[in-house]
Each structure stands twice: as C-alpha cells, then as structure tokens.
Design goal:
It is a single chain. The longest helix has 24 residues. Strand 16 and strand 17 form a beta hairpin. The protein has an 8-stranded parallel sheet with strand order 2-9-8-7-6-5-4-3. Strands 10-11-14-13-12-15 form a 6-stranded antiparallel β-barrel. It folds into 2 domains: 126 residues, Lyase, Ornithine Decarboxylase, Chain A, domain 1; 201 residues, Alanine racemase (TIM Barrel). It is built from 11 helices and 17 strands. It is an alpha/beta fold and 372 residues long. The mean pLDDT is 98. Helix content is 29%, strand content 25%.
Length: 372
Amino acid sequence: MDLDDLPTPALVLDRRVLAANTRAMTARMRRLGVSLRPHLKTAKSAEVARLALEGNFGGITVSTLCEAAYFLDHGITDILYAVGMAPAKLDRAAALGDQGADLKIITDNAYAAQAIAAHGAAHTVLIEVDVGDKRGGVVPDGPELLEIARILDGASTVTLAGVLAHAGHSYECRSDEAMAAVAEDERAGAVMAAERLLAAGLPCPMVSVGSTPTAVFARDLGGATEARPGVYMFYDLFQAGIGVCGLDDIALSVLATVIGHRRDDNTLLVDAGGLALSKDRSTAALPEDRGFGLVCDAASGRPYPGLRVRTAYQEHGIVAADRPIDFDALPIGAKVRVLPNHACMTAAAYEAYNVVDSGAEVVASWPRCNGW
C-alpha cells in the first residue's frame, strides 16, 4: 500500500527516523551512566516499545493503568506507573501484580500513602519529588518526604523503592544552557531526597529522573539510577522549536487530503482539523509560530516552504502561507503530511500507525492502545 491509498486523516510513523531517535537516546543514557526506562505515554505501542527497549534493561514508564495492562499483555513486566496513585485504583494495580507485572506506583501525599499501606496487597512505591515543575511532588528538603516514607516503609506489604522526579518545566527553557541548568536541578533535587531517606535509615534503591529536554541536555546524572524520557521517540515541532531536535528528527505526521482552494485568500482546506491534529498551540510561544502544524510533501515528509495549518476547526484545517501558494502543485485531492506541534496529543486520536521507511510505501500497521 502507498500513502496515497490511505483514507485520511491518517497517522504516519517513519520507522527509520524512530529507530535513529531510540538508538541515540540509548547511547546517550549509557554515556551518562544511567538506565533508560522509556516513557511509552506518547507511543502506546508494543512495536515502538520493542525499538525503544533495544539495548536497555527492559523496564518502561506508563501514564495509565490501561497502558500498563496493554504492555503486560505484550510481555513487558517491569512497569512504572508515573502518575500519582488514586486510592480507588489500588485494586486495579494489585490485579496487574497478580497477573505478573512488577508494577511500581508513586505518591506524594500522606493520605494516599496511608491508603496504600492499609490496602493489604503488595505494592512497590516511589515518592514523587518536586524539582521545580510545581505539578506533583514534595520538595526534596521538606518534612513530608520522611513522613510519607515512614508510612510506606512501616507497612509489611509495601516496598519503598525510592524517589522519582520530573522536570516538566524544562519545556519553558529556550537555550541549551537553561535546559542543562534544569537538568542539574532535577538531578540534584532527586539525589538530595534519596540521601535524606538513606540518612534516616530508609531504603532508596531507585532514583528516577526524566524529561526529554533534560535527558538531551544533562551533563551529569550522578546519583540517579534511571531516566524516563518519552517524546524523544517521535519528537515534534515544539521540541524542534526549543532546540531539542531538528525537523528531520520528527518521526510522526498526519496524512491529510486537500479538499478546497480559496485562491483569493491564499489558503487551502484540508480534511485534518482539531481532532486529527490536536489543538495544541505550544509553538505559539516560540519565535516562529507553526500554527497547528507544518504542511509537508506526502511522499518525502519534507515541509513546503511557508505552509502551515493556520486554523483548526473540528474536521477542517485551513492552510495558509507567507508567500503565494502554488495551487496547481497541490490540487484538490492531493495528499499532504502535517508535522504536529505536540506528538502525544496528536497521536491520541488514532488507533494505529501507518508505518513507512522514509518514503511513501506503507510497510506495516502498528496498533496502539488508548484509554485509561
């Protein structure tokens, strides 16, 4: 099958670019002396996981228990569920353990820690540490860390496995130096928390850090045991915009069809809108606004100069340009590809990847899981 044969919109994944990205991150983590536990929340695919795990120890990160069950069904047992544990989900987590998962969960509060301790089932738990993102986590030097740790360690069915940090605020950085500084804050905060646990006589075998920008720009991960980047497998326009990757490193795109010309307005219509592309506007905060995605040649995936999806309605995208559009080169019915602002959000609308090897031939279809 060729891309031109696919109904649109369709999700396209370039296997060659994906494999290059996964190999590069594996090599980088090896040089920094930590294990790579890839985050599969973007990919949600067993086939992508196999590439990401090549040369690594075999553990993964997920963001839903649905993902955990899916990857367990595909033979991956070492799974870290990196979203704060809701007590109502403890039965589901325990069931995954009964089915053979070595599932690790996280918490950042005494209420959930007490629920985990009282649950009665075996749970392995990390304490989430806030290293500046101000989303989840306790501060590394605050009293809550030891309070939570003692609740967990005091329960006979609970294994306190260590600490986890995520420098999500690295996405706010706009220079290599700034990202390297956040990476160091992430490392230092996680290591401080680990050292406090050990000094109090509490176990801390795992010191888990991770975001794609900090994994790319970290200069030292001493004291950490593993890193959990995720979007590096696919990258996207936002990651390219902040200097984490180049446009050629973006493995994911959306295939769309030209469905209309508005020559007086110098715009095209395509059949990919907010549901197909997502309405993420992260690149609007960057010097070069990419709209809702850059429009590319369908066969090569190369961007057309100046073309971007300016407006995204539910099922329509309006393509505008900073120069006259060659309407004859993009007739109604022509296929194009759109590079996404945020790969995680864009991929979430689809059930499968149409896999290519840097060309127009579809060589495979890879299913992905969705839901919670």
